[in-house]
Every structure is written in structure tokens, then in C-alpha cells.
Amino acid sequence: MYSGVLIVESLVVGAELDGIPLTVRKVSRIAVGGTSAAQPDVWSLLEFDVERGTELAEVLSRSLASPGWYADFHDEHESFVIFPGRVFRYRRGDDAAREEAKEFGRGLAIPEQQLDWTR
Predict the structure, then answer these.
(1) pTM score, two decimals?
(2) Domain chopping of the chain, boundaries
(3) Mean pLDDT, the chain cut into blocks of 10 residues (119 residues total)
(4) Which residues of 70-83 are buried (b: 16+ CB within 10 A; e: fewer)?
(5) Residues 6+ apart with CB under 8 A from 10
């Protein structure tokens, strides 16, 4: 089972996460600092668990707004980091693969402090 947090504002208008069962653990709204020009100052967070990680990653790669957004989720063995049009999947603790994903995020002008997903 994978766990993650989705920022609802990161989805393109009209996006639907349909057909992939998610267990919602928590929904919250937070005020954030250090956002990019493409990001609002208040985010809606959806904390979830999902079994079908590969399918969710594919859907999210087509559903995330660009520029400036990503999503991530993980289990005890691997991490998924998803950007618009690109999915990184690697074993947890693989610092080289994590850095490759972070570098891709930098290229999308995602603020450095947001490139902080779970190792």
C-alpha cells in the first residue's frame, strides 16, 4: 500500500481521478509560503493510501498542471514522483534517482523547498 499527499490545486481544470480506488485519510487546507508565481498561497491537501501505484502515477502525469507542480507517494520499498508528463519510480534510499527527479523538478521552476518528498 502506497501513501501520499495530493495538492488538489495541482490538478488541471477538468481532471478526474476516476477508477483508481483511494482511501482518503485526511483532507485539510493550509496557508503556505515560498510558492511560485503559478501556485496559490492556500492549498487543499488530500492525504491518501492507494494500492495501484503504477496506474495512479500514469493518471497523475496526465492530470498535473504545468509549470510548477508534482505529486509523490511511497511505500516502504519504493517512491513515485510524478510531474506533468513524467514519472520517476525508484527504490527508497536511491539518492541518485531522487536527485534526478529533483533536478527535473528544478527545470520546471518548482521552488527548492518544495522538492522535499520522502526519501
Answers:
(1) 0.92
(2) 2-114
(3) 96 93 97 88 96 96 92 96 96 95 93 85
(4) bbbbbbeebbbbbb
(5) 64, 65, 69, 70, 71
